[in-house]
Amino acid sequence: MRAVLILANINKIDRSILKDALIIGVDRGSYVAAINNINMDIAIGDFDSVNESEVELIEKMSKRLIRLNPIKDETDTREAIELCRGYDEIIILGGIKGKRIEHFYANLLLLFKDSRIALVDENSYIESKASSFRPRDDYKYVSFYSIMDESIISLEGFKYNLNSYTLNRMDSLCISNEIVENPYVKIEKGRILVIYSKNDHEEI
Question: Are 35 and 62 in contact (CB under 8 A)?
Answer without folding.
Answer: no
